[in-house]
């Protein structure tokens, strides 16, 4: 039986152990070969696992960590000062091959900085990328990268994002995914110098199924399976969508204080919209992956619920089983060989 | 009585005269000093105004234009070949001072290219910007620029966007608006080189109420009154939000085919959500303004309804009354004087 050990940053996120531990226990019950090394404050963690079945307890190791990276902490400071934090120790476990993946709902910037520092890049990879799957209305998924790991990306970095995204879709059994470059228009003459140069590179690479430029609204259509962009654009677009979703929910809430029909509408609409929102909120859907490193790192949304955090853990299991880092390493090596 | 003449591109948009003319007639009835020069195919326009009151007819001049810029036409080709189009003639009227503003629901790229070519920039302005007001849930408006006129912007261009946006909010009686720069995080160390350099420029400019970096979700909060960004980011973020809104409406439509409770929900929710969507869809809210030119150009969304197109016309009236181009010219001149 293959080793399936996940290092869990139990302290990360807005809720910490009360969300991360119950989520972990439920996933543990579903995957008999799974083990957790749970990193964090043992005084908060142990009481939450004391009463569970022995068969589950045997597959949990608690590693006490005296430090926590707070949500507002500067990445550079966390990197320097928080070497005993649950986040850092979880990443160290992956680096030491004691775990195959790390899952954290903690401070994104700190996680990126620490993962980059601890795990290092795969050979030939220029920059890591944060990627997530956006579910569209029809059940289709679009993988979007980068969502904020790199604010400035040249065409070669975007090309590597396309290769990494292409590997990632294999885990949902999608070979030869349609790759699009996010742009301000679909015509070839549109866009920045970088997007035009990236378009040439992707078109030349016969290992990729490049379909051309796509626009912002195509994040939610089924035009492409993988959409590449620099982390500045990806981050702003995702957060703008989050902001819109919240604003719509607020608007409907305010209806509840108007007349009786509005009240009825709000009472029916709110739970359903919130469910939709959770489904469409990419960070909460199944966790974002940090690609390009020598190890698997899954970032869950900070205010993820137990259900959402379970998705993030399952995403880690999926990537372990599909050996995502190894395959990315091979694909990039192949691309470099082809070019030379 | 001040002259208030608007050149109307009657042919622009997905619907053309059946939407633009009824919208114009309703606005005409509300503003007794308003005149229209309606540009387009007289055979389509004249029948739509034949039956109206003489007092309104006297304030409409129809200028027959044999050409139309189509929605999918390349801007460069439109600029070269469509000198007799309703769009081009409307802009010419502004350039010749026969009209104070032009309103069009036509091809955005062609309108930008033609407006830039026909009207020219105000002295000292580096690049024009497309701006619109995004209404947040609480009735607050955030002006966002640029939405796609310029894909690459350096810090000096972003600084001018801040000055232009600051002038624009005066027309809603908001002095000293809070200006934010769109970024991937709020901390000063976050972002691209351009955003950091722009932050320094905006902070140094004591004529601006610069509040720092804002994030994508702040497009829908009341944190800032004016948010500046390059046109690539602005365009992608807006279109992503449009895509999300459409996807949510599609999701709810699909509920209507499930069980009876879903059917009831969908029947109640859809009209209300569509209304919300129209309110929050920035292009349809009140038209986007092209700032920085020697004249007023308002771009309405291509598939605007009559109501939405009326907003665009009213936006033009507002900008004429507030002498937006003159004030922008003065503000930029002042900024250039202060620096020298």
TrEMBL record, chains A, B:
<keyword id="KW-0012">Acyltransferase</keyword>
<comment type="pathway">
    <text>Lipid metabolism; phospholipid metabolism.</text>
</comment>
<comment type="subunit">
    <text>Homodimer. Probably interacts with PlsY.</text>
</comment>
<dbReference type="InterPro" id="IPR003664">
    <property type="entry name" value="FA_synthesis"/>
</dbReference>
<keyword id="KW-0808">Transferase</keyword>
<keyword id="KW-0444">Lipid biosynthesis</keyword>
<comment type="function">
    <text>Catalyzes the reversible formation of acyl-phosphate (acyl-PO(4)) from acyl-[acyl-carrier-protein] (acyl-ACP). This enzyme utilizes acyl-ACP as fatty acyl donor, but not acyl-CoA.</text>
</comment>
<dbReference type="Pfam" id="PF02504">
    <property type="entry name" value="FA_synthesis"/>
</dbReference>
<keyword id="KW-0443">Lipid metabolism</keyword>
<keyword id="KW-0594">Phospholipid biosynthesis</keyword>
<keyword id="KW-0963">Cytoplasm</keyword>
<dbReference type="GO" id="GO:0043811">
    <property type="term" value="F:phosphate:acyl-[acyl carrier protein] acyltransferase activity"/>
</dbReference>
<protein>
    <recommendedName>
        <fullName>Phosphate acyltransferase</fullName>
        <ecNumber>2.3.1.274</ecNumber>
    </recommendedName>
</protein>
<keyword id="KW-1208">Phospholipid metabolism</keyword>
<dbReference type="InterPro" id="IPR012281">
    <property type="entry name" value="Phospholipid_synth_PlsX-like"/>
</dbReference>
<comment type="similarity">
    <text>Belongs to the PlsX family.</text>
</comment>
């Amino acid at each position: 039986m293959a080793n399936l050990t996940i290092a869990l940053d139990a302290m990360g996120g807005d809720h910490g152990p009360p969300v991360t531990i119950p989520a972990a226990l439920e996933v543990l019950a579903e995957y008999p070969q799974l083990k957790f090394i749970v990193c964090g404050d043992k005084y908060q963690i142990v009481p939450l696992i004391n009463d569970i079945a022995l068969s589950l307890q045997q597959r949990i190791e608690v590693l006490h960590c005296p430090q926590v990276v707070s949500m507002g902490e500067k990445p550079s400071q966390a990197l320097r000062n928080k070497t005993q934090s649950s986040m850092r120790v979880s990443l160290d476990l992956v680096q030491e091959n004691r775990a195959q993946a790390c899952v954290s709902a903690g401070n994104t910037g700190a996680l990126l900085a620490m993962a980059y520092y601890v795990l290092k890049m795969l050979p030939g990879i220029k920059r890591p990328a944060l990627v997530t799957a956006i579910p569209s209305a029809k059940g289709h998924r679009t993988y979007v990268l980068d969502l904020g790991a790199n604010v400035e990306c040249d065409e070669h970095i975007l090309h590597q994002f396309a290769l990494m995204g292409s590997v990632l879709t294999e885990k949902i059994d999608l070979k030869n995914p349609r790759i699009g470059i996010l742009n301000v228009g679909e015509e070839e003459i549109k866009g920045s110098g970088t997007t035009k140069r990236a378009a040439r590179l992707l078109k030349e690479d016969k290992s990729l199924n490049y379909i051309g430029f796509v626009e912002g609204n195509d994040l939610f259509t089924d035009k492409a399976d993988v959409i590449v962009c620099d982390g500045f654009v990806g981050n702003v677009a995702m957060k703008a969508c989050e902001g819109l979703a919240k604003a719509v929910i607020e608007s409907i809430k305010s209806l509840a204080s108007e007349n009786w029909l509005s009240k009825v509408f709000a009472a029916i609409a709110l739970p359903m919209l919130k469910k939709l929102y959770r489904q469409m909120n990419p960070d909460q859907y199944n966790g974002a992956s940090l690609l390009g490193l020598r190890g698997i790192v899954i970032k869950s949304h900070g205010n993820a619920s137990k259900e959402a955090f379970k998705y993030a853990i399952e995403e880690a299991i999926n990537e372990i089983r599909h050996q995502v880092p190894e395959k990315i390493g091979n694909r990039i090596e192949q691309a470099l060989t082809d070019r030379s």
